[in-house]
Design brief:
With 281 residues, the chain is of the alpha+beta class. The protein contains 6 helices and 6 strands. The N terminus is likely disordered.
């Protein structure tokens, strides 16, 4: 009994010690909250978000992109005849130039600016010196149940770059996107890799603002006008190009690289691109 009594007394004493220590600690915390004894300077231990700016490779000028985009947009493309956005990135994924074809930055869908940058990034990011893939070529494989489903989520858009800067600068040589890595993946028509005369991939171009099929047609013509279409090989036209492929039947692409049709006119124009605007010409 004496031994049990001793244990109980010791337990009570230990409880009182722990309680006293807890009260003392809470008092110290309260002092710090009151500002009497700050434990650290404001901001210490927090990570600051920093958006890096890079010097892009000078593969195209802003003026050249405007001319190429305007000329392609004014052609018949089988879409809604809308004004467009275009973006070019270099091989590192850094935005080189952003342009629009309308009179002002809001003459084309505002949301298509970032989409065009996504497409440019995708065309560059998933093409190699020996194999070109357009964003249109990725559609079939990224559908639910297919081999690349989820690819769209793999490289998120850098939102600080996408929506930073002054709106009135969008699409000009001073666009905030220039010099930034935009990221993003897009898997419908309008994005293409860019190849120099040696057949080396040097970046990507993306356009947006019309139907996905018309976007592809315009992007192809923009690339041709920029003289950066020396495509070495692809998955279309017998392995010769990265052209859009219309081979869906009952929801299944025969090649695995197909894209849905948008309109008969766009299909006709798109399938004829290697003839009307041959690569490397």
């Amino acid at each position: 009994m004496d031994e049990l009594h001793s244990v109980r007394v010791a337990a009570r004493a230990l409880t009182m010690v722990v309680f006293s220590m807890a009260v003392a600690c809470s008092g110290d915390d309260a002092d710090e909250l009151d500002g009497d004894e700050p434990s650290a300077e404001a901001g210490e231990g927090t990570a600051e978000l920093e958006l890096q700016t890079f010097t892009p490779d000078d593969i195209v000028s802003h003026d050249a992109l405007v001319r190429a985009l305007t000329g392609a947009r004014d052609d018949d493309n089988g879409g809604f005849d809308l004004d467009m956005w275009a973006t070019v990135v270099d091989r590192e994924g850094v935005v080189v130039a952003v342009a629009f074809s309308g009179a002002t930055e809001d003459a084309q869908w505002p949301g298509s600016r970032v989409i065009s940058a996504q497409k440019a990034n995708t065309g560059n990011a998933f093409s190699l010196d020996g194999l070109a893939l357009s964003t249109a070529n990725l559609f079939a494989a990224t559908q639910p149940g297919q081999s690349l489903f989820g690819l769209q989520e793999s490289n998120p858009v850098e939102t600080l770059a996408a929506y930073g800067g002054e709106t009135e600068d969008y699409g000009t040589a001073d666009d905030f996107l220039v010099g930034k890595k935009i990221g993003g993946i897009n898997v419908f028509g309008g994005g293409l890799p860019l190849y120099d005369e040696s057949g080396d991939v040097v970046g990507g171009v993306g356009v947006s603002g019309d139907s996905a099929c018309a976007d592809h047609n315009i992007a192809w013509k923009v690339r041709n006008a920029l003289d950066l279409d020396f495509v070495p090989a692809g998955v279309a036209d017998g392995g010769a190009t990265d052209n859009i492929i219309y081979d869906f039947t009952d929801g299944v692409s025969a090649s695995g690289f197909g894209h849905p049709e948008c309109a008969p006119a766009a299909t006709t124009i798109g399938e004829a691109l290697p003839t009307t605007h041959p690569i490397g010409s």
